[in-house]
Amino acid sequence: MTRKVAEQGTPAKSAHFPIRNQAAESRNRISPVMAKVRALLPETKAAHHLAILIDEPLGNCQKLLCGARTENAEQLAKLLRSDLGREVLFAVMGEARPDWFSKYRKQLDVNAARKQLLASQRAIEALQQEIVE
Description:
The protein is built from eight helices and no strands. The protein is mainly alpha-helical.
């Protein structure tokens, strides 16, 4: 029985990828949306948190967070409807700035300023109440 042997000077497969994970890193590019989601989730058990958040199987969430799979429209919709929806929307929009999105961002800033103003007014009223008593 004869065996086929690589010709002299032909590098072995392991020479191409000395570290197995190097190949995976170059292939698996995580989407900007999932990169943002991963940054917002706790570092420990991020896939578990994502699975609970969007009601998807754990394996799917692990693959989404490592870049082995891209998110589909249904998963994006679930993310947009979650508590992380605002940040996900900003990640989806990226550098695009249509008029409606600019107005939406400004309205969010107005809402945040109003909320802060109301909190300050409540704090002032509480301090005044202490003075009167």
